[in-house]
Amino acid sequence: MADNCVFCKIVRGELPSFKVYEDDKTLAFLDIHPISAGHTLVIPKAETARNIFDVTPEDWRATTETARKVAHAVEKAMQADGVNIMMNNREHAGQVVDHPHIHVIPRHKGDGLGQWKHSAYKDGEAESLKQKISAAL
Ligand code: 5GP
Q: CA 83 to CA 67: how far, in whole Å?
């Protein structure tokens, strides 16, 4: 977490937000600049982490469980055709706010928001990458 962490300020009630859910460990509130209407952010309340790389297993479990509940509610309330669950981690992955947060984004048929492009592995590349990633675990 950073000194100027806006989500910490929301947790502390120092900044306003449109809260949709709260429990002892997590908070969910509307994103101020939604990708689609109903776009909701789910965060751990603890002010100890920046992203997936330093969030505690306990806070992560609580946050993902809240995201699961919120996904159901957002899809139902927005009469959506699906939701994207997304998280940016570190600056070059698009993270702007240094407090762990999961995006729950309602999607509608034909909304034009698109999907990420997929590519293909060259011969032997997948086997080599599998070994590299397995070894890092
Ligand atoms: P990131 O790019 O870090 O994954 O996403 C940060 C998100 O936080 C953005 O979608 C942005 O619109 C949202 N955001 C930034 N500041 C505030 C704020 O003060 N209040 C709320 N509700 N959302 C914010």
A: 11
17 lines ligand 1 (CB under 6 A): yes
Evaluate: CB of 93 within 6 angstroms of ligand 1. no
Give how far Cα 6 sits from Cα of 13, 36, 46, 65, 136, Å. 10, 21, 13, 23, 33
Residue 102 host element (H or E): strand 102-107
The per-residue pLDDT for range 22-80, each reduced to its tens digit, is 999 999 999 999 999 999 999 999 999 999 999 999 999 999 999 999 999 999 999 99
Sheet hosting strand 102-107, strand order edge to edge = 19-22, 26-30, 40-44, 102-107, 82-86
Would you say the CB of residue 4 lies under 6 angstroms from ligand 1?
Answer: no
| pTM, 2 dp | 0.96
Give the residue whose CA is nearest to atom 17 of ligand 1. 32
- For residue 114, how far is its CA from the centre of ligand 1 (angstroms)? 21
